Amino acid sequence: MTPLFREHIGFWTEERRKSLYAGILFLVLAFATQFIAGLYSTKSMTNFVGDVFLDNLPTVNLDYVIVDGAFLATLIGALLIITRPRYIIFSLKVVAFFMVTRSFFVSLTHIGIYPHEIILGTGVLDRFYMFLNLQQSGFFFSGHTGLAFLGALIFWQEKLWRYFFIAVSVLFGAAVLLAHVHYSIDVFAAPFMTYAIFKFAELELFKKDYAIIKGNAGLTT
Question: Which of 1, 171, 182, 198 could bridge to 153 as Cys pair (CB 3.0-4.6 Å)?
Fold first, then answer.
């Protein structure tokens, strides 16, 4: 076995495997919930509203950051988690919890698309992105900003990756504002919403799974 995956040796007890399967199921259900919430939001969409930032910012085509950058950041995060088995179970569950929570808020807010938003390209990644995001129908809160910040919280004990994901979160936040595909409240609220989701998962919902991360990092549980 390569050094990257050496940590998997002896890690997967029967109990952890069952928890892993539960996490995968939760993530699948979260994707379904996100899809349904997006459809509902699209059907109920109303007019756009004014925004102090968007009203004064030029529209910049940052398609490559919003689409390609998002997939690249997701790939990096997935590789980091897969090669560190102690992170896998908690990460699956907290990401799923993030998606379900965001879907709930998306289903409550049906504000229309702000004028002059960028038009995404026609590449494979662009089409897949549009399918998952349902043409930006879900605004509050920003998934780009929030998920990247969630990555920072998950890897908080690893300084390099903590700062990497914080930087990515800031980059994505700026990109979706300049591209006019999110309102400013979506972006500025995302870190606060994400932190609340993470802490609730860490301290209440998935405390045992998070203790695996802390224990393997040499910290007390």
Answer: 198
